[in-house]
């Protein structure tokens, strides 16, 4: 086949300038002298895009031509972060672009700031999906990401009197230069209606079939995003779906003269992809959410079958061509959808269809909290997707028959394993459906996968031991080291060459340099420069002043009780108390800046109270003339990927302090370790593996282990006993209760205090003393800059395992068995 002719701009400063001016003139319709910052940004983004276009077309063409075994990542969330820098680095254009722009009198740094990041995810799960597609592209794996093009991403957080107030995230208003709309590839998706039986064929060939007659339909329009590999000549695709009203439906009503109704139907359809659910860890049982899930999954399956497979493809061979990876339960409705396509539309018999379906899906679980496991009431699901509910019932019947057969009719076991829960309302347990259907089920860190097998999905693990596996999460070194930390990247490359960017295990070669005083000095210089970058950012962005000469102690992640931001703030309060009461002199403390970044789900009342508490404590600490000499709290609003990119490289201490057995993995923990922060953390999630790799001497471990916490809960945990026994704890909680941080008002934080003293589900009080002790060890260690930076360098050198490239290799070997194409 002939190679397609694709125009590519010349990879030189002059070539870049030419392309840039063309964009400014012809696409933006303006000239250098009159262009706004946004004009410049759009012109730049499109210019960079042009350099990647040939690779994108070539990659896509080759996927189609070779039909390799591929991966389709199904995820309701992609927390992408800004695109410009990533594209510049991937295309090896950083220097050329900077020089080209400078020659036009433009500063590249100013244009970077103009990009609003696509925040199409909540937290860890969404960012993980973004890291994974980056790694797949970089490793030349034929892969496509499927998701939703939310018109509004994760809300913009603001603080009013220290309390969270949410604003809509209008990320599309400035123009969306990274996306390509393809209305010509729109897909129709049905909802509601009813099912019918009918006889297909005649005489001996006659078979009874079912058809679904939807009550209404919407269109899905695909928007393609480039997913550039790192300098390997490949660009994969992320395809996000946007909902539209069907033209026919719309027009019919419109022609009847009912304009209001025509608008209503349009609004219904377009609402589906309007906004990301800002919930993290507790599913919203809202029908619109189920609509979103079915919408994107139905579009994606249809698209894969119709657009990415050859016309004559025999769907019996589908498992040879694709693995659909289910990112948590959000896309699990894809299972009955594929069954429906095969049985109702393609005429497969049930067993044949099930055989294909089961081999096409794999499921990743991202949680351990029972309340985070999605369930859909059958009346909701049956109204919205009547045929899918029938299919789920049949899958369940056949599954439970096997359970009965193998268990000698153990009805208690059958009830526990059923896809359908009977209480409190009859509902579909999406995690059970996923587990029954999937070829493989994986957790996201060793401990998490173990707990899935032993606790959350124990019955299933006994039934299908070989189904369960682990793939420890990872993060992309391109964005979170190469791009976020140019100083450290330069230092590493100088020492060991640049291969580490795509082969992070090579960081091991840095180990001997931990003992090299000159290297450590330069390492500290980089950390210091990164702190100054953070100082500038916080001053500019938030009007927050921080001292780069202090230890930077950072806790950034979604606000959730199990993550225990309260434990961190109780530590701050204890330090405050000790200074104010004269127990310690400020000279004897290591000066610290405690940085928080956290969004709370808008409906999560306790999480919002905790945000207010942190802000109020921060205000009192900052206003105190003595305390503020050695302790400051900074809580910049609206923590996001962009902020992380400046914050993580500046950190000295990484706070990973969840109750053991609750954080599935964590990925922030990996980003900090890779950027040379030391971790203070519990034996939870991937912390366990981080500590094993970096070594106990370079990690501050504290707190109960998972078995200890479980045993204590079993025996009857009484938080108030810790309050009674522990003086520091009592004083800290009393300060809060007595209104020290609420202008004397004792009711303000009463709910937080009484929750801790009464239930304390996540055992903050039990771990308090152990945490204080660990913080003392932190202080002692920080006083010795040479020893500290030695540990920091060893953290970097020994964290190569946490590259998402390694995660992708593990998925390939253990789950997908997809092909790897040669780089181009
Ligand atoms: C439906 C509501 C909802 C939304 C999101 C429920 C649950 C979730 C996710 C499972 C929450 C999440 O982001 N989990 C995080 O996934 C990361 C990537 O695997 C892990 O590193 C985190 O430990 C886990 O909390």
Automatic annotation (TrEMBL):
It comes from the Bacteria. It catalyses: [(1->4)-alpha-D-glucosyl](n) + phosphate = [(1->4)-alpha-D-glucosyl](n-1) + alpha-D-glucose 1-phosphate. GO terms for molecular function: 1,4-alpha-oligoglucan phosphorylase activity. It holds the Pfam family Phosphorylase. It comes from Isoptericola halotolerans. CDD domains: GT35_Glycogen_Phosphorylase. This is Alpha-1,4 glucan phosphorylase. InterPro entries: Glycg_phsphrylas, Glyco_trans_35, Pyridoxal_P_attach_site. Its EC number is 2.4.1.1. It is an enzyme of class 2 (transferase). Belongs to the glycogen phosphorylase family. Allosteric enzyme that catalyzes the rate-limiting step in glycogen catabolism, the phosphorolytic cleavage of glycogen to produce glucose-1-phosphate, and plays a central role in maintaining cellular and organismal glucose homeostasis. Keywords: Carbohydrate metabolism, Glycosyltransferase, Pyridoxal phosphate, Transferase. The keyword Cell cycle does not apply. PROSITE patterns: PHOSPHORYLASE. The keyword NAD does not apply. NCBIfam families: P_ylase (TIGR02093).
